[in-house]
Design brief:
about 210 residues, alpha/beta, Rossmann fold, 2 domains, 7-stranded mixed sheet, about 40% helix, transferase, membrane, Methyltransf_11
């Protein structure tokens, strides 16, 4: 019978092998998180390892703002953004998958306006939002530069873009990669918070 140490060791080995395999696969195939994992993405466990209030605060969300979440999925974070923006603000949750948005609609909490479209053609006018944020989404988009340019277009001058990444995610990029992508899209870095495990880069539209 294996000891606790041996069990822990093999769990780590399996996780590492899985991460290697899935990361190699993601280099070849880019696709959004499938809707069947929406329950996990909107779970208390995920909110424990990625606290919504912390990530939204890092992303620059404040009371009274007009806010867009790109890739809201099954709405793990958007209800918290609604509370943070308050009744004076407005929050829109945006996703490419109708199945994910349907899961949002089933929630019994206060929800944002929900919009289905793709990140290359955001259905909003220029200079609409005070803030745009995304959580473990940017690297899932096959052409992240085009998506970032769209985020820049719909942001007001001086508006904030928050990009949060999580080490366990198979598309996880290093901080310097996220920073370079944002700067190449015309943003300036406003702050970097968090560590290697879970970080947020906050940009501003000049």
């Amino acid at each position: 019978m294996m000891s606790v140490t041996e069990i822990f060791f093999w769990i780590i080995v399996i996780i590492l092998i899985w991460q290697i395999v899935i990361r190699i696969g993601r280099k070849v195939w880019h696709f959004p998180a499938p809707s069947f994992i929406g329950g996990f993405l909107d779970s208390d466990f995920r909110r424990w390892i990625q606290p919504p209030d912390l990530l939204l605060s890092r992303s620059g969300i404040e009371r009274g703002m007009t806010v867009l979440e790109v890739g809201c999925g099954s709405c793990c974070f958007t209800p918290f953004a609604v509370k943070m923006a308050g009744p004076e603000g407005k929050v829109i949750g945006f996703d490419i998958q109708k199945e994910m948005l349907d899961q949002c609609s089933e929630k019994e909490t206060e929800l944002p306006e929900l919009v289905q479209a793709d990140a290359y053609n955001l259905p909003f006018c220029e200079n609409t939002f005070d803030a745009v944020y995304m959580v473990t989404v940017l690297q899932e988009i096959p052409d992240p530069h085009t998506a970032l340019m769209e985020c820049r277009r719909v942001l007001k001058k001086g508006g904030v873009l928050g990009v949060s990444e999580f080490l366990v995610d198979p598309d996880y990029p290093l901080k310097r990669t996220t920073i370079a992508m944002g700067e190449n899209a015309g943003f300036v870095v406003d702050g970097v918070e968090g560590g290697f495990w879970n970080y947020t880069v906050r940009f501003r539209k000049p």
